[in-house]
Specification:
The complex is a heterodimer of chains A (about 400) and B (about 600).
Chain A: H1 17-25, H2 27-37, H3 49-58, E1 65-70, H4 79-86, H5 88-102, E2 106-111, H6 119-131, E3 147-152, H7 162-169, E4 193-197, H8 198-210, H9 212-216, E5 226-233, E6 239-244, H10 249-256, E7 263-266, E8 272-275, E9 293-297, H11 303-317, H12 323-340, H13 346-362, H14 366-370, H15 372-381, H16 383-387
Parallel strand pairs in A: 1-2, 1-4, 2-3, 5-9
Antiparallel strand pairs in A: 5-6, 7-8, 7-9
Helix pairs in contact in A: 1-5, 1-8, 2-3, 2-5, 4-5, 5-8, 11-12, 11-15, 12-13, 13-15
Chain B: E1 4-9, E2 12-17, H1 22-28, E3 52-55, E4 62-63, E5 73-76, H2 80-96, H3 111-118, E6 137-138, E7 142-144, H4 154-162, E8 169-171, E9 178-180, H5 197-201, E10 207-209, H6 213-221, E11 226-231, H7 233-236, H8 252-262, E12 266-269, H9 270-293, E13 304-305, H10 310-319, H11 333-349, E14 356-362, H12 366-371, E15 386-389, H13 390-399, H14 421-424, H15 431-445, E16 465-471, E17 486-493, H16 495-506, E18 514-518, H17 536-552, H18 562-572, H19 578-584
Parallel strand pairs in B: 1-5, 11-12, 11-14, 13-18, 14-15, 17-18
Antiparallel strand pairs in B: 1-2, 3-4, 3-5, 6-7, 7-10, 8-9, 16-17
Helix pairs in contact in B: 9-11, 9-15
Classes of the chains: A alpha/beta (about 400), B alpha/beta (about 600).
The structure holds flavin mononucleotide and iron/sulfur cluster.
Chain lengths: ~400, ~600
């Protein structure tokens, strides 16, 4: 951890303190505090966590569920893995608080298939939490009980999408479905369900103990708090960084030793490619969308090659249900191959850009809606490099 | 829930019930939103993204078919954004679809072709698919051509949700998505029951029936061959749809004329064989009941299930083989007819059965599989040579240049051309049950069924599962053992409903004496070989046609059919007699759920 300043997640932490405090506050106050903190989901979509909990808490149901989304499949992202490895208790505590807030007695960690080696340590952490009565029956001697189970994914990126995830947990093919209804209404086993990212859940114990106001001291007004970034590529110090939301690309590059970059992919394959001219833009929900991954490319990198890599990923990982994503990604990859061979006319490239717009506009889930981001931004940033090879 | 929600669609405002989809609301507002993966019989998928619309306040376009209206909304169905998305998605599908329209059986009924025409498509926007990638997979009944598949998954939703057969599933991801059988086995080697419901709902030519038309033309053109056709009631109530008639128009007599013009040497009525089935099956039921109720014979099983639907027969062979003893041993009317034609009739008119070709015009794709079952040759020859579907027959009639609408009314040939109304209603779900009740009740009590106009209303309708009871009072002396017995019967259509019934039976939650099951929704009139499209309304119209024809007939009970009585007198002897056993009854094959060894 190169980052010197101890921000939130890498600051001090006492296991259980947040949970004990939450149990004193009562569910309503916990939801209100999280809402007031303006915490937004760290899994990509940036949905306000407090609101999500409030909507789920309001549902009347004999059963509700908390799912911790640990499917971390976005290329270039590895921050959740770090949390699961080093801060599992914090994740579990966040889940218990969420469960208490919405009235769930059961939680699941949906663990990325490739992270199977973490299953054992997570289960050890669960056992240790149960021993200390922070999980299991009658938590901290109250009448709140909460169990957590680890479920394994099978290696599909799309299963990180909350509905595909739920569908796969329900025993079906992991495919997104139409919304509404949302998981807060009809989720796992058709019961109200909160799906939260690993990192999102980790902020919760802090917000409960230190308060929303303290949390809001970090970040910007619309993007409160800090954020973990998985930094890779042409930098001196790759790794996981906790940085303030609102940081500019330039500041980030300085922090990680990435000066002299040609472009930065913010938010992984589904994020945006940012060229040098835009390095003064800030990374936050109102600016460059803060996905967990930062990939830095230096001037030796062939951007068409980078793009091809991303498009191959989407062609492979689209669930294949809906037309724009299933066929669109394939056509984009085909276009990249044409570009490689110098066979793509300017006119056809325009056609493909229009296709990108339709994919964003009409795909069924986030995968197809964001898959064209890389294509559009790389083509825009590096049109000459790509067209005249 | 009758809460009304105001919606504005383009410049039309209306109120809809909570939960109504935008697509339904558009229909109410008189607006057409194009669809492709949507089908009125199937679960919503929202995957083709053709029906997308703008919903104010939502960032992306929404699939109209899948969006439930839960609060007041404003919708735009015809904005530049909407048109562009529809067009691009259509172009994407067209580029992936391989096949020439003029070599496709769905030319003219293909929904993709229709959309391309509506949108004025005049070129491929993206490189088109110029070579086929997949081998065509054929069973005796079904042909799968994945090259024409557009991944709308209607077939999967039909096979898994509507029919609960689950022979087809999605395999792979992304552009490599395929509709596949288990372990990519040929369709003939998996649990497919040949119901052909997937064909009825495929928007393109990716699924079709195995057409015997060429071979049949050969037979017709061969002067040595005596080619006989028997026509089932359902095709007659539906084939008109192929010739511009409204659904629900019965064209029996015009069809007779057309078939003669086409070159068939005899035109017979399958209803005749349906009456024969009732005689055999009714007697079998009474025999079983006596053995169970009086003799306490535990080797005999009730409830007895009907066996006229070859899709249902294969379904039970796969999924409930332990219940095969419950299945009536009667062959279906089609097969009974074939066996009688190649024995009794051949002798009567002095034709060598070897030179006889028996064709069955059926609403059904599974009938092709049925007539090719190895055990279906009790006449010493293949009892029925060809099962021809309604759609396939329409092609032959058109090919022959015959205008159905211009045909005169003509009757069936006799003997074997007289069918009762009871045989006729076999075409609708509940029909076999009603026909059986009409005869069995009267045979047992000497009185007609206690229903107004002989209409056994409790077993009619389109409810998935229906049941009824009938108490026998004052029976004739030889049926004294039935006095006071309340017969319990049930009817199910669509194998998904059959499954519900079977699971309840298995759990011991239900007790019946007799159960009718038809594999297809609506019964035969909704068969997999019937004209495309299909919908609940179309099936209801066909049912009305069948029931109204029954009302127009004088002869409405199978056991009163004089030609049937003549057949027993001259040839068969009595129901369940020695010859009946040989020619009209059969046995079944337990099949299991997989054909793979070791599973
Ligand atoms: C294709 C796709 C993949 C996703 N993968 C993940 C993932 O790996 N982890 C994750 O937390 N969220 C992922 N999401 C976002 C989830 O759908 C969901 O928004 C998120 O888990 C909600 O948690 P949050 O509100 O805490 O961010 C993905 C979304 C899409 C469309
Ligand atoms: S956008 Fe892609 S991943 Fe999402 S539902 Fe459509 S095909 Fe599947």
């Amino acid at each position: 951890m190169k980052n010197e300043k101890k921000k939130i997640l890498f600051g001090e932490f006492v296991t259980g303190a947040g949970l004990v405090r939450a149990l004193e506050m009562g569910p309503g106050k916990v939801v209100a505090e999280v809402k007031a903190s303006n915490l937004k989901g760290r899994g990509g979509a940036g949905f306000p966590t407090g609101l999500k909990w409030e909507l789920t808490a309001k549902q009347e149901s004999d059963e509700k569920f908390i799912i911790c989304n640990a499917d971390e499949g976005e290329p270039g992202t590895f921050k959740d893995r770090l949390l699961l490895m080093e801060q599992a208790e914090k994740v579990l505590e966040g889940m218990a608080i969420a469960g208490f807030a919405i009235g769930a007695r059961q939680g699941f960690i949906y663990l990325r298939g490739e992270y199977v080696y973490l299953k054992k340590s997570l289960e050890d952490a669960i056992a240790s939490m149960i021993n200390r009565r922070f999980l299991g029956q009658n938590i901290n001697k109250t009448d709140f009980s909460f169990e957590v189970e680890v479920r394994l994914g099978a290696g599909a990126y799309v299963c990180g999408e909350e509905f595909a995830l739920i569908s796969s947990m329900n025993g079906y093919r992991g495919e997104p479905r139409n919304k509404p209804p949302y998981p807060s209404e009809v989720g796992f086993r058709d019961k109200p369900t909160v799906v939260n990212n690993v990192e999102t859940l980790c902020y919760v114990p802090y917000i409960v103990t230190k308060g929303a106001e303290w949390f809001k001291e970090h970040g910007t007004q619309a993007s409160t708090g800090t954020k973990l970034f998985s930094v890779s590529g042409d930098v001196k110090h790759p790794g996981v960084y906790e940085l303030e939301l609102g940081i500019t690309v330039n500041q980030l590059l300085a922090e990680v030793g990435g000066e002299g970059a040609k472009s930065v992919q913010v938010g992984g394959a589904s994020g945006l490619n940012v060229a040098e001219k835009d390095f003064d833009k800030s990374i936050c929900f109102e600016g460059l969308p803060p996905g967990g991954s930062i990939m830095v490319f230096n001037h030796q990198r062939d951007m068409l090659h980078v793009l091809k890599n991303f498009m191959e990923f989407f062609v492979e990982e689209s669930c294949g249900q809906c037309t724009p994503c299933r066929e669109g990604n394939y056509r984009l990859l085909e276009g990249v191959r044409m570009l490689e061979k110098g066979e793509c006319s300017v006119r056809y490239l325009k056609e493909l850009e229009a296709l990108c717009d339709v994919m964003k506009d009409s795909s069924k889930c986030g995968l197809g809606q964001t898959a064209p981001n890389a294509f559009l931004s790389i083509v825009e940033n590096f049109k000459t490099e790509i067209l005249y090879r | 829930m009758s809460e009304k929600i105001p919606v504005q669609i383009d410049d039309i405002t209306c109120e809809v019930e909570r939960g109504t989809t935008i697509l339904q609301a558009c229909k109410c507002a008189g607006l057409r939103v194009p669809t492709l993966c949507h089908h009125p019989d199937l679960e919503v998928a929202g995957i083709c993204r053709i029906c997308v619309v703008e919903v104010e306040g939502m960032s992306g376009l929404q699939a109209a078919c899948a969006y439930p209206i839960r609060q007041p909304i404003k919708v735009r169905t015809n904005s530049p954004r909407v048109r562009r998305a529809r067009r691009v998605n259509l172009d994407l599908i067209l580029s992936e679809h391989y096949g020439d329209c003029y070599t496709c059986v769905r030319n003219g009924t293909c929904e993709l072709q229709e959309l391309a025409r509506e949108y004025g498509v005049d070129r491929y926007r993206y490189p088109s698919t110029t070579t086929p990638k997949f081998k065509i997979d054929r069973s005796t009944a079904i042909v799968r051509d994945q090259n024409k598949c557009i991944s709308c998954k209607r077939c999967i939703r039909t096979c898994i949700d509507l029919q609960q057969v689950s022979a087809l599933e999605t395999a792979n991801r992304g552009h490599n998505v395929l509709i596949q059988t288990a372990f990519d086995k040929p369709i003939s080697d998996v649990v497919c029951i040949n119901c052909g419901q997937c064909i009825n709902r495929c928007p393109t030519g990716a699924l079709r029936s195995n057409m015997p038309n060429e071979l049949l033309w050969h037979a017709i053109d061969d002067p040595e061959k005596h080619v006989i056709i028997q026509t089932a009631p359902s095709p007659r109530a539906a084939i008109g749809e192929e010739f511009g008639y409204e659904p629900g128009t019965s064209v029996t007599k015009k069809l007779n004329a057309a078939l003669r013009r086409l070159g068939f040497d005899n035109v017979f009525d399958t209803n005749f064989a349906a009456d024969l089935t009732i005689m055999e099956e009714g007697t079998e039921l009474l025999t079983r009941l006596k053995k169970v109720l009086v003799d306490g014979d535990s080797s005999v099983k009730v409830p007895m299930f009907t066996s006229c639907s070859p899709g249902w027969v294969k379904y039970i062979e796969h999924y409930y083989p332990e219940y095969l003893d419950h299945l009536s041993s009667c062959k279906s009317p089609q097969q009974m007819f074939g066996a009688i034609l190649k024995t009794y009739y051949a002798k009567k008119v002095g034709i060598d059965p070897e030179k006889m070709v028996v064709v069955a015009l059926m609403p059904c794709v599974a009938k092709k599989f049925e007539c090719n079952r190895p055990e279906m040759s009790d006449s010493g020859h293949k009892d029925v040579d060809f099962g021809l579907t309604t759609r396939e027959m329409a092609v032959m009639i058109k090919e022959a240049g015959i205008h159905l609408k211009d045909m005169p009314d003509e009757d069936f040939d006799h003997p074997l051309g007289l069918g009762s109304g009871a045989g006729l209603i076999f075409g609708a779900t509940g029909g076999v049950m009603e026909a059986a009740i009409r005869s069995v009740y009267e045979i047992v009590t000497g009185r007609p069924v206690p229903f107004k106009g002989l209409d056994v209303m409790p077993v009619r309708g389109m409810e998935g599962i229906r049941d009824a009871t009938l108490t026998i009072e004052n029976p004739l002396p030889e049926y004294q053992w039935l006095d006071g017995v309340t017969l319990k019967v049930a009817v199910a259509h669509g194998t998904a409903n059959a499954r519900i019934l079977m699971e309840k039976l298995k759990a011991g939650k239900l007790a019946y004496h007799f159960i009718e099951v038809m594999a297809c929704p609506g019964g035969c009139l909704g068969g997999g070989g019937q004209p495309i499209p299909t919908s609940p309304e179309i099936r209801a119209a066909r049912a009305r046609a069948i029931y109204s024809e029954d009302h127009q007939l004088v002869l409405r009970k199978s056991h009163e059919n004089p030609e049937i009585n003549q057949l027993y007198a001259e040839f068969l002897g009595e129901p369940l007699g020695h010859l009946s056993h040989k020619l009209l009854h059969t046995h079944y094959t337990p099949r299991g759920r997989f054909f793979l060894e070791g599973l």
